[in-house]
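FIELD: query
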Amino acid sequence: MTGSTIRISVLANAKNRGFTLIELLIALTILGILAAIVIPSYNEQVRRNGRSDAIAGLLSAAQDLERCRSDTLAYNNAICTAPFPIVSGRGFYTINLNNAATTATTFTLNATPVAGAQQANDTDCALLTLNQAGARTAQDNTPVDTTANCWR
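FIELD: result
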């Protein structure tokens, strides 16, 4: 008699194993909601991280221009302007010297995302600029001022 009791309890436990369809659907719904929140947040963080490449490239180019001006006494000397445009360190941005705004005593550098690179979809910070006075600006692709969000 005890042997049949054991079999019944084993069969009863076998019926309770696994998930029901409702439990599986609830779990998938929770995963879908989490993915809808996490993926856009992750993508924004990747874009912010990529912007640091533009900032580093602009600052490096500005230092190079300052060194060149100390040697030639002018930002618009051919020696100073020759290397532009350049590509930022990680290759996400093109750094260019705005020739219309460059004189012996002033310069403006522009950083724009390289087409096809990671930052090409960063429409919030489509143009970052830096001048000889250290003034930093940024614009989205419409062009609206987005300096506060882009130069963090």
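FIELD: remark
The chain has a mean pLDDT of 88.
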